[in-house]
Design brief:
By secondary structure, the chain is mostly helical. 58% of the residues lie in helices and 6% in strands.
């Protein structure tokens, strides 16, 4: 396995581990719609941080100026929510409605 991937996965786990005390694996019970909402929000934040479309962004009631560390943290948040959504859609295969099955 690529060393970059291993290092990134370890950082993803570090973030999840930091929340174990308060949240544990509660994401396993969250709806796929909620996880998608959170993923989109973090992608939006990351987009703002990288494109520089705004000097500051309102994030969790704080005013944050994008820094390389903040961009890297946002990448990890996006990856973690994508992982959660991946696993939740796998668990709910029978309930998942893809674009072709919507009425």
């Amino acid at each position: 396995m690529r060393t970059e991937l291993i290092a990134f996965a370890e950082l993803m786990e570090d973030i999840l581990f930091q929340h174990n005390g308060e949240k544990g694996d509660s994401w396993k019970k969250l709806s796929t719609r909620y996880l998608l909402y959170k993923l989109r929000r973090h992608i939006e934040d990351l987009t703002w941080f990288i494109t520089g479309s705004a000097e500051e962004i309102d994030y969790s009631h704080e005013r944050l100026i994008p820094t390389p560390d903040l961009v890297r943290k946002a990448c990890l948040d996006v990856a973690n929510y994508a992982m959660m959504l991946y696993w939740r859609t796998e668990e709910k295969k029978d309930d998942y409605m893809g674009p072709d099955s919507r009425s």
